[in-house]
Design goal:
It is a single chain. This protein is mainly alpha-helical. It folds into 2 domains: 16-85, Tetratricopeptide repeat domain (Serine Threonine Protein Phosphatase 5, Tetratricopeptide repeat, Alpha Horseshoe); 88-174, Serine Threonine Protein Phosphatase 5, Tetratricopeptide repeat (Alpha Horseshoe), CATH 1.25.40.10. It has 9 helices and no strands. Helix 4 runs antiparallel to helix 5 and helix 6 (104-117) runs antiparallel to helix 7 (122-134). The chain is globular.
């Protein structure tokens, strides 16, 4: 009796995943379940296996930020951008870091850079809108959050969150024209 055939792991692109990509995929799964230590460990392994992949550093930076390690996260964002300046996630992460620190102007600037690189990511527009609102720029915030609503399928459950922000910002901006969604 022979050995059973080895099962090949395929990613979303339909090709076989490298070892580093498997660690990366497992890290994203752990992160989604709030297992930050496991996510960090898997991203460390992915980086060891393929140290020139910017997205691995960016992902680890986001995990570290969620774990309250903002300075370590910034190191990963900076290194990831040095490897690939087109990594929108690093700017998004920097925006989140600034937002959490209460530096809303820096948050808006970082989210704006992320928008230029990934104009189809609704979450960038939502967080930028909140930061703009906190800076007193409610009209511009309302434009961002309304645009975010167009990026999400109407049946998507995230649409409810965006609609709540639209309502909140419309109430904060007296005399705002309320178009239907």
């Amino acid at each position: 009796m022979g050995t059973p055939p080895q099962r090949k792991r395929r990613g979303l692109l339909g090709r076989r995943l490298s070892l580093a990509e498997r660690y990366y995929e497992r890290a994203l799964y752990a992160y989604g379940r709030g297992r930050l230590d496991a996510a960090t460990a898997d991203l460390d392994e992915a980086i060891l296996a393929e140290p020139k992949r910017a997205e691995f550093y960016i992902a680890r930076g986001l995990v570290l930020l969620a774990d309250g390690r903002a300075d370590d996260a910034e190191e990963d964002f900076a290194y990831g951008l040095a490897l690939d300046p087109a990594q929108w996630g690093a700017h998004y992460g920097r925006g989140m870091r600034a937002f959490e620190a209460g530096d809303y102007r820096a948050a808006v600037d970082a989210f704006s850079r992320a928008q230029q690189l990934a104009p189809d990511r609704y979450e960038i527009y939502v967080y930028r809108a909140i930061a703009l609102h906190l800076l007193g720029q409610t009209d511009e915030a309302l434009r961002d959050v309304r645009f975010a609503a167009t990026l999400i399928d109407p049946a998507d459950k995230r649409q409810r969150l965006v609609k709540r922000w639209i309502e909140t910002l419309e109430e904060a901006a007296p005399g705002t024209n309320r178009p239907s969604l």
